[in-house]
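User: Predict the complex.
Assistant: Input components as received:
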Amino acid sequence: METLFALASEMETVVEQGGSSVLSNKVMASLFYEPSTRTRLSFEAAMRRLGGQVIGTENAREFSSAAKGETLEDTIRVIGCYVDVIVMRHYQAGSAEKAADISAVPIINAGDGTGQHPTQALLDVYTIWKEFDAIDGLTIAMVGDLANGRTVRSLAYLLSKFRVKRIIFVAPDVVAIKDDIKEHLREHKIPFSEEDDLVAVAKKADVIYQTRIQRERFGDRQADFEAAYGKYIIDKQIVALMPERARILHPLPRVNEITTEVDSDPRAAYFRQAQNGLYVRMALLKTILAPES
Amino acid sequence: METLFALASEMETVVEQGGSSVLSNKVMASLFYEPSTRTRLSFEAAMRRLGGQVIGTENAREFSSAAKGETLEDTIRVIGCYVDVIVMRHYQAGSAEKAADISAVPIINAGDGTGQHPTQALLDVYTIWKEFDAIDGLTIAMVGDLANGRTVRSLAYLLSKFRVKRIIFVAPDVVAIKDDIKEHLREHKIPFSEEDDLVAVAKKADVIYQTRIQRERFGDRQADFEAAYGKYIIDKQIVALMPERARILHPLPRVNEITTEVDSDPRAAYFRQAQNGLYVRMALLKTILAPES
Amino acid sequence: METLFALASEMETVVEQGGSSVLSNKVMASLFYEPSTRTRLSFEAAMRRLGGQVIGTENAREFSSAAKGETLEDTIRVIGCYVDVIVMRHYQAGSAEKAADISAVPIINAGDGTGQHPTQALLDVYTIWKEFDAIDGLTIAMVGDLANGRTVRSLAYLLSKFRVKRIIFVAPDVVAIKDDIKEHLREHKIPFSEEDDLVAVAKKADVIYQTRIQRERFGDRQADFEAAYGKYIIDKQIVALMPERARILHPLPRVNEITTEVDSDPRAAYFRQAQNGLYVRMALLKTILAPES
């Protein structure tokens, strides 16, 4: 991860200097079975900034052979005939792993249902690293939909590779953090707690990682959605309680869970975080496609 | 505008000679919340012809974070982290201005609801300029849906910067030209009239700018649509009345408002006009992204 | 065809060596009115591998001016103003020809309804040629939906230019091969037969070209679909009957008509066939856009 982060830092300079042509012979497929703005566009921009080419679909579920009954495995096998790397988002947990098992070219998981979103976690950790110069010793609170939010799941896994001081989970009951993550943290001896008072947490956390209550993951359970939505909002009052060196992150998109009045506060790091997505994904693509250059 | 038109003329030569690489370090996002063929594809082709790269979505409304409840402002802030310029079409009037207010990168308005479509107006005026070698002194008739047609609105604004002889508006009552445009022309002392006899107008106009009655802008008011649709058709009979040096323009797409038998008449300039869209958009992108090269 | 195949063979080397820049000044439009994964992506990858650029739409029916009532002819005329070649898939038989009649730039038919799919046929024949070093003298069985499958239709036409030993059609009654194809083969003196015993055919055919029963072509006739679906499945038992030098082809996507247990058999050539699509389309694009380079 440190190697990747160092490379991501270099990428900031590459972008400033007008890009690179290190991937000029490479073609990436972006294969998205679910909507995405920032993940897809930042991957595609990352490839372009390194001189590479992109083909793909922004709605694979409806417009590709999936609509004709083709299995994911067949789709991957065929697309792997045309390109050098496949970036995929799918609506089923485990689909990226299934694809990687049979693919002739590298698969990058850009989110698989309620499963994982590893490149998001990488850019989240990179952002913390850049904002604090370190990960070890920090108190990191994760707030919002911790059950369905794959970014939270991936971030918790990734943080378990560092020596953070504590992870605090703050979630409405219906979307509390799941046991597999807690078990994973216990195994790695990462101190964690579940709390329900955002005011208390705001006073002590170094990082508040806010997330959106994702209506689309609730399906018919609209009562559950209503119960969860709007319970933990970060507004001016909450921010006023936070230490000056603290930071607010959010994987975005946000709806109402951080009020826009917070955006101009220096502790609001979420747009810098989005920007970091470009650099981390450039670093990833270069590492995979041109490790020696 | 003259500088831009001169550059657009140069671009014709650039395309003939196989393109340029002046924007090879630049990435454009095309962010379309509404369907588009010619505007989106001509912008994307323009970027490619200058060596630049493109990322984007052709259905932002459904496939991007907008579907998750993200505000346009947040979407623009994030995409601006990845690219050098954003070309956007949105279904709400004023949205391009809203985006430009907070964007870190230039925003090009590719149509905002019933608001404006400035790059269309630029290519319209460029076409008139190329066909007549001048704009001043011309009599220009605008026909069709003048209430909802944003191209007409933008064109009227732009023509007010020249000394045209007269603008004639010819529209079914339900889609007559709006007061704000008339007010604007009065302020700029541009003579204009509203007429309802296309035969009489055909005999005296230098330019007939025909437009489509846009079913999608009528919503539930189908009776209004039926009343307007088919009232002013340019066919062989109308063309026969026009002076030889006169020209027919149309922003396209057309449905039935110009019959296809007219296409081969030298006065039919609408496909040349479409072609000019490429050159004008190349000129715009170069002016914005590489003004010094 | 032999020139094209020789060039396609060269393209394998070009891809291995990291691509070419022979089309670096060229822009292709991909204009798809129907879903496609492999055809669209392989054309786009082909263009990229040769250094060319791509613009387009993956859902022209809904997102382009077609939704506003524009004719295909107008769309083609306009897009031809922006690009050097148009690759189009359309839902109506004959549409590619209609487009080619008025287009200023070359049109490549990437499938027109139940009409033709000529580039698929080219890659099919190329695959047979590569697997057997010849086409003449082979017994080629076509299985599945022979009425609606445009790939089968195009392949039969193309094979009539060679001296194959025999073509065998194996299809459920409701989707039997149509008379125009049979008439064409008779004219070209190509021996053919219609048979219904896949076991007997498996023992004698050099090539089994399996196809999918296409639910989307049946419309309301679901009873017909049910009757046809699942009648001729290639599984381990069928493969065991085939000569060792025989080959199974399939234009893909498949649903259940070849079981996945067959994939690892050396006679299963369908993924090699998909890969060949890239090379054949590279050869086509180069032939059309840069014949002299």
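The radius of gyration of chain B is 19 Å.
Let me know if you want any component modeled separately.
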